[in-house]
Amino acid sequence: MNSGTVFVVDDDAAVRDALQLLLESEGFAVSSFPSAPAMLSSIGPESAGCVIADVRMPEVSGLDLILEMKNRNLHLPIIIITGHGDVPLAVEAMKRGAVDFLEKPFDDDALFAAVRGALSKHEAVQSRYAEERQISERFMSLTKREREILERLAQGRSNKVIAHDLGISVRTVEAHRANVMAKMRVKNLAELVRMFLNGRNINFGA
User: What is the pTM of this model?
Assistant: First the structure.
């Protein structure tokens, strides 16, 4: 089952309608727009799916759309469609962040494959973001003392050394360590350290 919506953006109504019919015949949910501003006014950070946009459009081109979506924190993968003479522009679009480009006239199967690839990429990114948010929330649930102990565990320090550093008993360290592992929902120290280090690189607070 295809998840997410395919947002088709093309100022040519015939191309736009043909793409929508073709994609819907393959089971994709589709919303089409005559311009980039029209699409941008209809989506938000919570939108799921991908975008198919023509590289040459009045008002806002496919290249400009990529930049505008980044500025608005919209992370939908973008597939650029292009005429033969626009291939250099399509390559530039790839450099700016488009996930694929299709040269007109393109094969139906190539279109379906590109869309499925873009939808899968977005789903994977969203899944990763959700996991990161969960880990961050778990970290933020730790007390100041539990964070201090977690940071020292990640540095490879033993319970005894941590106890000395913080001026508390080893038994107290052990109790805090057990609380940390429970709150972070990990089964062993290696998993805890890995989660902490990955989180520090992403969005753990100080």
Answer: 0.64
